[in-house]
UniProtKB/TrEMBL annotation:
Belongs to the NAGSA dehydrogenase family. Type 1 subfamily. Residues 6-148 form the Semialdehyde dehydrogenase NAD-binding domain. Pathway: Amino-acid biosynthesis; L-arginine biosynthesis; N(2)-acetyl-L-ornithine from L-glutamate: step 3/4. One of its GO terms (molecular function) is N-acetyl-gamma-glutamyl-phosphate reductase activity. The keyword rRNA-binding does not apply. InterPro entries: AGPR, AGPR_dimerisation_dom, AGPR_type-1, NAD(P)-bd_dom_sf, Semialdehyde_DH_NAD-bd. The active site is at C156. Gene3D superfamilies: Dihydrodipicolinate Reductase, domain 2, NAD(P)-binding Rossmann-like Domain. It catalyses: N-acetyl-L-glutamate 5-semialdehyde + phosphate + NADP(+) = N-acetyl-L-glutamyl 5-phosphate + NADPH + H(+). GO terms for cellular component: cytoplasm. It is found in: Cytoplasm. The gene is argC. The keyword Amino-acid biosynthesis applies. This is N-acetyl-gamma-glutamyl-phosphate reductase.
Length: 352
């Protein structure tokens, strides 16, 4: 039997941490040997998430005092809050430089540390690590990810926007000054911490925009779209909160360049993703629902013609906890460990 990788999950008591555990339990090459959770340290995982009662898992522990060298972990998934992550990973990689890291926070997504300071309100505390971090959107950066020690897992909103838009930007097929991204996310995107605004009675039967004109994911979108276009790109992006647990639906409005029609854009995306296991482009005119991807690592993309000549409407759907976070993180792990890319994450969407 092939040797299993020794895996640590930092921040295992959050939604993305528990989703990592759920998926890693079915991964044939993963052995979970470390689970951390500051407030739940000392508890078995089943007390925090009863769905794990049938499985033998490590007891949750605090990060402080861990001997990273002695642990000799092959891969660490870091699902900690931004800023906290920088210090933890700096200490971890100094003590155990052979460990591979997939970071699910925002700490290493922005290559420009000045941009990080602007959007997150404090200077970056691990700039040397930032220089080596590879942005982990697999379908776009697969080659670089394979060689990485530190992978910055993309944001959920940004994954839902980049997957449909990046191929079109690279093909110079759309007007870069007329991109509008209208995105909606389920409540798990806000994390598991107790917040008054996330109470059932505060969220149910309602629908609202937030971070209007200033959401932090804008910096990530600007960076990646500018890289694809080889010139500065600034898009309009507005996130909304949906009263549901999972899912992101992005409705994207674009104008084709040089006479490109909506059908032309559909053809570009269909060819680009024809062999990708986790991106599916629907037949022209069809659009996805969030329930079509729930619990899976799949992103579905639909393209339709706008009634305004030259414009197209692109809709993407993904599960924010899977392709938008933990599933994509395991996809990154598979690449850096040399495993088949689909290993352990090829489950079909749960429906209904």
């Amino acid at each position: 039997m092939a040797t299993k990788a020794k895996i640590g999950v930092l921040g295992a008591s959050g939604y993305t941490g528990s989703e990592l555990v759920r998926m890693l339990l079915r991964h044939p090459r993963a052995e979970i040997v470390l689970l951390t959770a500051e407030r739940s340290a000392g508890k078995p995982m089943r007390e925090v998430f009863p769905q794990f009662s049938p499985y033998e898992l490590p007891t949750l522990v605090a990060i402080e005092g861990l001997d990273w060298k002695a642990l000799a972990l092959d891969v660490v998934f870091c699902a900690l809050p931004h800023a906290t992550t920088q210090k933890v990973l700096k200490d971890l990689l100094a003590a155990a430089p052979e460990t591979k890291v997939v970071d699910l926070s925002a700490d290493f997504r922005l290559s420009d540390t000045a941009a990080y300071a602007k959007w997150y309100g404090h200077e970056h505390h691990a700039p040397e690590l930032q220089k080596e971090a590879v942005y982990g959107l697999v379908e776009i950066h697969r080659r670089d990810i394979r060689k990485a020690r530190l992978v910055a897992n993309p944001g959920c909103y940004t994954s839902g926007a980049q997957l449909p838009l990046t191929p079109l930007i690279k093909a110079k097929a759309i007007d870069l000054d007329e991109i509008v991204i209208d995105a909606k996310s389920g409540m798990t995107g806000a994390g598991r911490s107790a917040k008054e605004a996330m109470l059932f009675s505060e969220v149910s039967e309602g629908f609202n925009a937030y971070g209007v004109g200033k959401h932090r994911h804008m910096a990530e979108l600007d960076q990646e779209f500018s890289l694809a276009a080889e010139r500065p790109v600034t898009v309009t992006f507005t996130p909304h909160l949906l009263p549901q647990n999972r899912g992101i639906l992005s409705t994207i409005y674009v104008r084709g360049r040089r006479g490109r029609t909506a059908q032309d854009l559909h053809e570009i995306l269909s060819k680009f993703y024809a062999k990708e296991p986790f991106v599916h482009v629907l037949p022209f005119g069809e659009t996805p629902h969030t329930r079509h991807v729930r619990g899976s690592n799949m992103t579905m993309i639909g393209v339709a013609a706008d009634r305004i000549e030259g414009r197209a409407i692109i809709i993407s759907a993904l599960d924010n906890l899977v392709k938008g976070a933990s599933g994509q993180a395991i996809q990154n792990m598979n690449l850096i460990m040399g495993y088949p890319e689909t290993m352990g994450i090829d489950q079909v969407a749960l429906f209904p």
